[in-house]
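re: that complex we talked abt at group meeting.

here r the seqs, copy pasted straight from the sheet so there may be weird spacing, ignore it
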Amino acid sequence: MINTVNNIYTFLDLAGTFVFALSGAVAAKQKGLDIFGIFSIAFTVACGGGIIRDLCIGAVPPAGLTNWLYLVTVFAATIISIGFYRIVNILNHPVLLFDALGLSVFAVTGARKAIAFGHNYEVAILLGIVTAVGGGVIRDVLLARIPVILKKEIYASAAMAGAMIVVAGDYLGYPKETVSTIAIVFCFGLRFLGLHFHWNLPSFPDKGIKKDE
Amino acid sequence: MINTVNNIYTFLDLAGTFVFALSGAVAAKQKGLDIFGIFSIAFTVACGGGIIRDLCIGAVPPAGLTNWLYLVTVFAATIISIGFYRIVNILNHPVLLFDALGLSVFAVTGARKAIAFGHNYEVAILLGIVTAVGGGVIRDVLLARIPVILKKEIYASAAMAGAMIVVAGDYLGYPKETVSTIAIVFCFGLRFLGLHFHWNLPSFPDKGIKKDE
Amino acid sequence: MINTVNNIYTFLDLAGTFVFALSGAVAAKQKGLDIFGIFSIAFTVACGGGIIRDLCIGAVPPAGLTNWLYLVTVFAATIISIGFYRIVNILNHPVLLFDALGLSVFAVTGARKAIAFGHNYEVAILLGIVTAVGGGVIRDVLLARIPVILKKEIYASAAMAGAMIVVAGDYLGYPKETVSTIAIVFCFGLRFLGLHFHWNLPSFPDKGIKKDE
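got the structure back, here u go
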């Protein structure tokens, strides 16, 4: 039973890595980067958030650099996004769903890992968010554009909700697996609804100031 | 007496955090980011420099992530910059003064912390600068523009001066409180005069090369 | 004999630092930054990759911040790039060669340091690449453009080749000095040939999508 749960976790973690790598590879390809650049951006999106988290909690070297499974997963995503670009584009909508799944899983595992290293709940929530959105922010910085997650439908806030559920469950002493599952489902649902109904957090445009998009 | 000094320090530190958060929130709002994006940029400006400093001296997790006072301060600055944008804009000049105060305080506390962790004077000076200007650099990177502090009136150089005074005082064994006060006043004065007289460090434009501003 | 080898290493390391700083200073000068900005960018290019590597392997504070030799080297490069800009420009081709040398040396020393800290081969290869190209990536991010190394002739891939030779040599138990020399020569040769023949890794442009260059 525990093993099944762990296997599911590992599977979800790699699935999240895969779809984040896919989104990075597609963006890099569209910018005309060479194959190494595409791979680098894909790796950064998939592992960047986790690497920052690990540096902040003192888990060196970061898991993204030591575990070859991540590297292989990113490599596969790069190859697929180049070789089957047309198909990946058609699958745009499913990819958004997988991206939402990656977001949820990373928010939960990020918060969980910070707690496991003995840090307080504020650290857990902040690093849950960083794990989930950090890679995407770095991708946009490398591609010289304002990080889209800072402007888009319920995204980082869904990650925050997921991390907060993990923290609340830990505080109340509820079983980890149940709490994590609830947190993932809630975060995923929030993001899915945000996408579906084009929910946006309020922004506050000025008259006469040109928006970037 | 010691307590008074400590209280003043804490107050200055939070005041610095507040005004840096304010400057970040205003910049983010002008770019049309949503409320979460505004908060994220505000937090990054206020705490980014300190987080890099803490990673470099091995103080994990970074204080900016563990101490809720920073989070609350940034939250307050975000709310105020949105709700009272008109007033914040009118207060532009006072904000520049507060920003200069934040710069001075962060340069001094950054250098002080590096010394307290047993590192050498070069590290103290470099990380004093990083603490003071790091957040602003990250803000500009996230907003996809060349960091303004790399181009503007005496700014990072004022932070360097402050950090060097701290180091000189430590080397000569002078009392910390006195040295820190002098360093803050000197750094603040330098920045204030730089602003007032539009002092700039020399740059070296080529003919025929378009400058960015 | 050992001393000679060590001296050669130190010389190569500082030579790499110098040319990387030069490339950063020239780019910053062309963007109209002030002298402090030019120095900051030069320092970042020269030491940024090594600082990220040191954070990832837990070597805090990073060598780039503690060793004043780097600072002096960067300072010299800044002064030279400003005072002798015309000459530096004429020497553009030799500078590219030095840059290739810096790349090779940093890739090898980066991989070597990761192994010396007891980390696995994947970490060594990845951080060899990061040490070699990290500074250039940060430079381009600060100057708000897509990192050129993600688009250019065999560059990061040459660094990867150098790091892989170090790892292979370590695995087979070959003497370090020999392996390092071979790795540097191979990486340098690969980069030199890439430059000379304008080798590029494949990219995959779409019709109708404007490339950035």
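couple things i noticed - The interface with chain B takes residues 55-58, 114, 119-120, 122-123, 126-127, 137, 141, 144-147, 149-152, 156-157, 200-206, 209, 211-213 of chain A (CB under 8 Å). Chain A has one domain: 2-196.
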